[in-house]
Amino acid sequence: MDELLPFLISGLGVGAVYAMSGVGLVVLYRSSGVLNFAFGALGAIGAYVAWSLLEHDWPQALAWAAAVLTSVLLSLAYGRWLAPKLAPRDPTIRSIGTLGFALVVLGFTEWTWGEQPRRLVLPTDSLAFEFALAGGDVRLTYTRALGLLLALLMMAAVALLLSRTRVGLKMRALANDRDLSALLGIRVLQVDTVAWLLSGAFAGVCGLLLANIVRLQATLLTFLVIPAFAAAIVGRLRSLPATVAGGIVIGVLEAMAIKMPGFAPFRTATPFLIALAMILMARGNERPA
Amino acid sequence: MSANWIAGAAVRVDADDLAQVQPALAGVSRQAWRSFALMVGTVLLIGLVLPWFSNAYWIKTLTSALALSVAAAGVAVLYGQLGLVSLCQYALLGAGGWAALRVSHGLAWPFELCVLVGGVTSCAIGMLAGLPALRMKGLYLALVTMMMAGGFQVVINVFGFPDGGAGWLGKVQGSERLLMVRPAVAPSDAAYLRYVAVWLAAVLALIELHRRTRAGRSWALIRRGDAAAIAAGVNILRYQTWAFGLAGFCAGVGGALLAGAVGQLDGRAFAASESVMMFALTVVGGVTHWAGALIAGLLLRAVPALLTDFGVNGYLAMIFFGAALLHALITAPSGVAGQLVGALAALRARLNRARHSAP
Question: How far apart are CA B45 and CA B41, in angstroms?
Fold first, then answer.
């Protein structure tokens, strides 16, 4: 067990980001019925903005804020301008629409910043919690710890928002039945705006963390949304706690799979295997007649 | 016309009207066969003409483009006929390519058989992938297939494609990688381009025959909803799985043809994002008309090559593709092909009018 612990701890960092991405995806899906394929692309462009600002010696906090702001603004732009044009269509088409947006954002990012991979260095990298164990010392950098903490905090905040506030109630109403909610006088666009804003903020934070933990490369970050979908699938695109748990479990299992003989080269397939198993086992996804 | 005949049984049917129905039906049928022949003829003509106008580089590029068109035709069947989103077509293409390379190197079967083996393998995998779709909403199917594409990316990265080595995986260790043997009738690059065009015409014809017979009618009903399909006596399990199988077959044939074009395939080229791009560009090309698949293949391979020729950054094409996908989803559901067909029809109408009004 001791020799697995370092992998468990490093997996926690990635798992936290999967969890956070999952929550960002689920929040939007629950209120507006859109599964955001552009989530990764939005995070990537935010991270690039932060990288550029840091190159120009901006203060760290401002650069991070600018990154999240970029993601939020782009997310809002799509949510208010393009998403309503697809609103009457079924969820599949609405989700595929974000794929087009993802390609636009990804193309723009790669075109502007070029494709050589970079790494976004955060000041929290140099500090770490040290654990002395029988199997050797383990370092958990502050960045990863911060990611884990942020994931839990943001999940809790979103859960509170959904269960306790007026806007959360409206979001849940929209999730149940969009047309009926509109008939009851809920301002659909207003609620949508909140959902896209939240989702964009999650994308921005996840982009920053992934650009640090993995690397800063737009195509890679854009398609890291695929394992993040796995976390959302574990939560059945609905439950926030299950999504968070799913994300963290996926991250940890993926990291620990290094130690599994024969499976190590395939370990990046872990999210997909878990997601497939969840989909095949889940009940209640039956399509309407 | 026979309006009263259609309106209901209460109206007495005129003998004259009935007599008009038969020729009208025959006319429709003739028209259908004409457009069928036009499709096969156009694809064959394209294959015949292209090598004359292309240099060695473009012949290679267009060969891959046509091979990918075969696979894109499968995406179009699922999305255009049944409204199902499948995001693993490029992975299926890889699986078909793997099987074809394996039998080509391992058993030295003739090329045509290798292509069929690739097609049948992906057909079987496609059917399996389609089974969850029987009890799932559309979005979940997209997710299932996306997860499959993600898994395939990892597996093929580790295993790689057979290149003449020993063992079950057929990987060469140490020595040089072998190339897949080209078909006996098409040893040169130019001949191979024509050969791929013949396969494309054959696959498009196969799909078109499906669309015009019982399968196509069943698909249309399934698309309307399970209730409609069951009420009409359609066997949903059989016809939906059939559609997935057909789409898989297209992917497998495309993969085998691609393997034959280059001689080998690279495991790193089969990322999940490729399947996503293939779906996106098939929708942009158009899923309701056969030309859509052709356009999708060109968008996937020829357009990026063209931009490189002009020294334009390839990522600008991606911005354009994304915008085109949104445009296709929002305002042009039949894609570029649909718009071209519409423009041609408008042109023909204008010419006809001009001819009739001329003295």
Answer: 6
For B229-282, the pLDDT digits (tens) are 889 998 888 999 999 999 999 999 999 999 999 888 888 889 888 999 999 999
The CA distance from B284 to A29, in Å, is: 25
pLDDT average, residue stretch A204-220: 87
Distance CA B318, CA B207 (A): 29
Residues of B in Cβ contact (< 8 Å) with A223: 271-273, 276
Q: What average pLDDT score do residues B278-293 get?
A: 92
For residue B276, what is the nearest residue in chain A, using CA coordinates?
A99
Is B144 near chain A, with CB under 8 Å?
Answer: yes
Q: Which of residues 192-251 of A touch B (CB under 8 A)?
A: 219, 222-223, 226-227, 229-230, 233
- B324/A91 Cβ within 8 A: no
Spatial neighbors of B328 by CB under 8 A, at least 6 apart, are B283, B284, B286, B335, B336
Class of domain A5-281: mainly alpha
Per residue in B135-149, pLDDT (tens digit) is 776 788 888 888 899
What average pLDDT does chain A have?
85
Domain-by-domain residue ranges, chain A? 5-281
CA distance A110 to chain B (A): 6
**All structural domains of chain B:** 30-287 (1.10.3470)
A87 touches chain B (CB under 8 A): no
CA distances from residue A257 to A42, A242, A274, B158, B232 in whole angstroms, order as listed? 29, 22, 13, 15, 50
B-chain residues near A40 (CB < 8 A): none
pLDDT of B308 higher than 90: no
Write the DSSP symbol of residue A118: B
What number is the ipTM of this complex? 0.89
Per-residue pLDDT at B137: 66
